[in-house]
Design a protein that fits this description.
six-stranded parallel sheet, two-stranded antiparallel ribbon, about 20% strand
Length: about 230
Amino acid sequence: MEAPSTAAAPVIPLRPEAGPLEAPVSRQEALLQELTERQLSVLKGLQGSLSAIENRLVAMAKMATERPRLGIFVDVPNVMYAAERLRVKLDFAKVLEFLLRGRELVRASAYAPISDDPQARLETQKFVQPFVDIGYRVVTKPLKRFADGSMKGNFDVELAIDVLTMSERLDIVTLVSGDGDFRRLVELVQSKGVRVEVVAFGQSTAAELRAVADEYVDFNDHLTELRTK
């Protein structure tokens, strides 16, 4: 009969118990990890904000170097009749410079009725002469005669077509007229994202036209610099 084996059982090392400092150190490591993650999150947010600011500065610099494109459209009879009622004579070369205000002029058009007399010299006629050779494109058509002897020159259709046609190439339209019939034209141009300025004499400007304009300029406020000497 064999004697029972006396081989020793394998010794399994016991896990040392946590020391008194291990728990606080673990908590400190967790806090440091959390703090680091928060700091990274803040840095990412700051980076996004700085990128947004940089993009805005680039856009502003671009706007500063690229001047807004401007189109000026003058309803000549409307403005000149209003000036006559106030006994004022405007210098339209000064008006053009005033309206430009450092912007890029694409075109300045003056819509002037002319006599139906073929012998009358164009450049000397009342509504044409103030705009000759000073930077305006002068659009003309004969005055319409009525049975009672009165005459009228209405450019609403021609002016409106030109404004709508050119609005795709403009950032700003300056309408020099106080005629309320242009209210709908202003709204249509604005719907294309184009800014519309209305310039006229306050006494002769329709309230509905003044109300829809992005900016309204009253000639009366600038007569010192715009009237003829």
